[in-house]
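Entry:
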Amino acid sequence: MATFVPAVGTTSTRWATLSCLFADEWGCNVGVNTVLTPPEPGVYNLPLDELRTILNTMEAQALRLDSLLKRNRHVWFAELDRVRRRCGQS
């Protein structure tokens, strides 16, 4: 039996959300890679005000995804926690 594990780079919270949703639908686990190099596309390299915009978007999605995600819920919420910590809002 083959195993498929999609890996997501944290260049966009939208992709992280879509990947978790697709992986749940397909019955597989998703992995997240933190993009640091090159610095331009990496979420954690963004200026704090831009990262806070991403945090606000993720916070707005959290309630819906809490009930929608099953298998990969912990992955998405771990990324939300990482963004919160990076913004100083742990």
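The chain has one domain: 7-86.
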